User: What shape does this take?
Amino acid sequence: MRPSNLDQNPISSLKSSQRTNRAISVILSLLIINLFSGCRYYRVKGVAEESVKSQMSWLQEFNQADKFIVLHQNGISQHLQNAQIDESSYELKGIPTELPAEHTYKHPTEIGKGYRYKKESQSPLNEVHLFIDNQVTLNPGQPVRIPIASIEKIGYSEKDAVRGAANVVGLAVGTLALIAVIVALTKSSCPFIYVDDGGEWVFQGEIYPGNVYENAQKTNYLKLPDIVESDGFYTLQITNELLEIQHTDEAVLEIVDHPDSVSVAMDPSGNLYTIASPEAPLKAIADDHHNIISQVAESDGQWATFDTHMEHSENKRKIDLWFNNNNEHASGKLLLSVKKSLWLDYAMGKFYEEFGDYFPKFQEDRQSISLEEAHQWREDQSLPLSVYVNTGNGWVLQHKVYAVGPLKFQELVLPIDLSGLGDDPLKIRLETGFMFWELDKVAIDYSDNLHVQKTQVFPYSAIDNYHRNVRKHLQKPDRIYLTQTEVGDWVEIKYQSPPKQSEKRTIFLRNKGYYTYIRDFEGDPDFAALRKFRNPGHFTAFAEAQYNALIQAIMTTSPEIVVSDERN
Assistant: This one.
């Protein structure tokens, strides 16, 4: 639901559009993965169009670009040779043939999932994937006419991530691409984690996110859903793919064996919880007016971005959630699929840019601050995701989530104290700065925690790209670091698999370390302006002002974006 005054204010309309904000998020994610990754990483993106004519347009564009067309039907994949589009009958014509080796992969193609690939023997970057319903018979070597209406989904992989992402969302390519490149070039993050899934390296996320000061390190936990045992070992890689120096102090597996009837999740402190019966919220309202239940009820490619347009705000945004109240339990388990936004990362980069050539000295001096000091500034600027519960006596703060990497949604669980709630529905509030976090899914679970078996597994070997065995650097948090100084540095770590003690196994990576930025800012710092960032809320206001400035630039150069957005 949109405020009525947006019809008269196109700037407000654009700013309030989740489609636009999500578009920027998608573009940035793809850019970072493709521009900075020396790891030969690809992702299949879906084409979000519904009409026959729109699909025709997409197919025409792909065909003219001489893309390699792959047909998928009932788990079988074939190449469509001699592809032609018949505009009069709305059909795609060609001859299905066996896929060549360079277009054959261990995994079935899944839209939205990212993989590394073997450059020497595989070629995914020029592919278009068409998912065909059962109304069409595909016989190898036999000509076929495929009605466009029989194409259920279209996906494609493309090295030019700027163009690809902009086309997916249907926005003006030039302006958003330029913005995305600017953001990507100032991107900072933390070490990337890839796991061996039995044949390919699969991206899992980032470790020790937000730990940029040596004295303010905190142990983090990363779930590894795609890791697979091979020859008695689990294998993963830690890589440096951005302009930073990474210092990893610990990389230990926590292997959890548990009944098949439950899943397992961790809170930010590493405490384990079993999940048996997660319940979606009854209602989800952003900033008192906007119904966003469709964006947070399922992990389906839609997510909430804390982006509501508000003429008068404290640069903070909130989402209120209503759940069924289970009076039989004194506590519940709040499940969140969340990540920090790339917008926050960009805004932080613009803040650092304000230091000019003083930034290296500022970064060096800040290495000695405590974790409490680091957390306090972040809290003053609304950087964490704050979790409140309405107990009947007002909103009570129960948790602050400080950092999750910006490139992949991560599942967290937070214990919720329900004492004093009574018979009222459970009402939970999530609050953060403007566009600082993204929420993909939220649920509540009231089930009792079951016994699980947790085993710590230390590195068996850790061979880096300089052929060194650095295993001892990663076994415990002793400040004897594996330091990765160059873009392209990696280490491959093997862990022996312990005997399985229950039906199902879930694996987490316990990690600790910190990273520092490599930046070459120019100019003299304005210390009077910088001192303002000590004031609570100043960075938050600065970040939203940066966003508004970008939107104004878009409107100045490409006002047609608003028209495109309104039509969709």
